[in-house]
Design brief:
- Helix content is about 30%, strand content about 20%.
- It is α/β, with parallel strands linked by helices.
- The chain has three domains: about 240 residues, Ribonuclease Z/Hydroxyacylglutathione hydrolase-like (Metallo-beta-lactamase, Chain A), CATH 3.60.15.10; about 110 residues, Rhodanese-like domain (Oxidized Rhodanese, domain 1), CATH 3.40.250; about 100 residues, 3-Layer(aba) Sandwich (Oxidized Rhodanese, domain 1), CATH 3.40.250.
- The strands form five sheets. A six-stranded mixed beta sheet has the order 1-2-3-4-5-6, with helices on one face. A six-stranded mixed beta sheet has the order 7-8-9-10-11-12.
- The relative contact order is 0.09.
Length: about 475
């Protein structure tokens, strides 16, 4: 069997990319690569493959793709949908255009606009099995397992969500649902991605299974479909438009972005004084125990890149504080979303601050029973819930005020400056980030519910 198809899944961005190869010719294509490309090169080396092609199914909004990195490292030809426009040289793919990987494997473009105007899907033919029916289809953000791509992300670039929704309906019904039920569906995202609202944790399915279970593929008029797929979508971070545009540009590669070195404490403080964003990437508990005053906690253990892109500014440089040895990881994960404006990192992490405790702050983290006692006192804290609206509506602490983390920076001045604040999320990751923003904004009497709502519920305390 000549066909080799390998999925690479990046959990923190819920992103799937692919290598498709013909083992007889040794020629491979990478589809929707992440910006750090070493894993593709290592796989190609292991299987004696030559990466000659790199395909983007569309201009991704939630990450910067690695097409330029593959072009520069191995000379791969870049392919985009025929409607795509970019600064770099590329080969356009219209309906029916093919990429022959060898005698046994063919890729064929299917124009599937809707999520974006230039979106394509890529049908994969194992020619030893069938020359007319694809073994699989790489659907990009057009069709997910359990969902379809949202059509509203290009509104900032002049597209109407209704117009793109109409295109999406046609692409699904006139193109993808015409494929054989047995064709495997390999999307570009899974659960956790903000490119849809109901993505499954499964990362592969079939056309037939999706026809049966996917809510957006059930029989309905086009107008109803548009209403459904544009309703209740999660808020898209501001960096989405930035990344979508950046994916059309001739830009520096990730290798250049990673060339950042250590900084002394004095250099970090000088950068902070002129507006740099100091990002502490340690776990919430470590941050709470001691952190550089004014730093923002976005832990590497969670959805680091997504929250960094949501909270941080692209206008001000970033300085990293990390556990020693994890600095490059932090810079790389920022680079995956095009945040290359990292000035450097604090040498030795928080060890470099231990001799100057006057520069550090701490966060009070309290247990659920202690939080309940304070809430029952004569001067209770304001309980601030930084989860998403749907989470709050499902269950919440009575009397809590909802202020989702992604909106906190713009609403932070609406909070009473003199009142004690008790911040919580579901488990503690987002609340630590929220507390760091509050402390940075000058709020002094701030506590965090350790373990979040999960700890409150586990303690048997009441929820509404």
């Amino acid at each position: 069997m000549a066909l080799l198809l390998k999925q690479f899944y990046l959990n923190c961005l819920a992103h799937a990319s692919y290598i498709v190869a013909d083992t007889e010719s040794g020629v491979a294509a990478v589809v929707d690569p992440q910006r750090d490309i070493d894993q593709y090169l290592a796989f190609a080396d292991e299987y004696h493959l030559k990466i000659r092609h790199v395909v983007l199914t569309h201009f991704h909004a939630d990450f910067v793709a690695g097409h330029l990195e593959l072009r520069d490292r191995v000379g791969a030809t870049i392919y985009l949908g025929a409607r795509g426009e970019a600064e770099y040289a590329f080969t356009p793919l219209a309906d029916g255009n093919t990429i022959e990987l060898g005698p046994g494997v063919r890729l064929q473009a299917i124009e599937t606009p809707g999520h974006t105007a230039e979106s394509i899907s890529v049908a994969v033919y194992d020619l030893a099995v069938s020359r007319t029916e694809p073994n699989a289809v790489l659907t990009g953000d057009t069709l997910f397992v359990g969902d379809v791509g949202r059509p509203d992300l290009r509104v900032a670039l002049g597209w109407s969500a209704a117009d793109l929704g109409s295109m999406l309906y046609d692409s699904l019904h006139d193109k993808l649902l015409k494929l054989p039920d047995a064709s495997l569906v390999y999307p570009a995202h899974g659960a956790g991605s903000l490119c849809g609202k109901a993505l499954s944790k499964e990362t592969v399915s079939t056309i037939g299974e999706q026809r049966r279970v996917n809510y957006a593929l059930q029989p309905m008029p086009k107008a109803t479909f548009i209403d459904i797929v544009t309703a209740d979508q999660p808020d898209a971070p501001a960096y989405f438009t930035y990344d979508a545009v950046l994916n059309t540009k001739e830009r520096p590669t990730l290798t250049e972005a990673l060339e950042r070195g250590p900084m002394t404490l004095d250099q970090v403080l000088a950068m902070e004084a002129i507006g740099a964003q100091v990002v502490d990437t340690r776990e919430a508990g470590d941050f709470a125990a001691a952190h550089l005053a004014g730093s923002i906690n976005i832990g590497l253990g969670g959805q680091f890149a997504t929250w960094a892109g949501t909270i941080l500014s692209r206008e001000h440089p970033i300085v990293i504080i990390a556990d020693p040895g994890r600095e490059t990881e932090a810079i790389m994960r920022l680079g995956r979303i095009g945040f290359d404006h990292v000035a450097g990192f604090l040498a030795d992490g928080m060890l470099g601050v231990q001799d100057t405790p006057s520069l550090t702050s701490a966060t009070e983290r309290i247990s659920a029973p202690v939080a309940a006692e304070r809430m029952a006192s004569s001067q209770p804290p304001l309980v601030l819930d930084v989860r998403a609206p749907g989470e709050h509506a499902s269950k919440s602490i009575a009397g809590s005020v909802l202020m989702p983390l992604n909106t906190l920076p713009e609403h932070i001045r609406e909070l009473p400056p003199g009142r004690a604040l008790l911040v919580h999320c579901a488990g503690g990751y987002r609340s630590s980030l929220a507390v760091s923003l509050l402390q940075r904004a000058g709020f002094e009497n701030v506590s965090e519910l350790a373990g979040g709502l999960a700890a409150w519920e586990a303690a048997g305390l009441p929820l509404t």
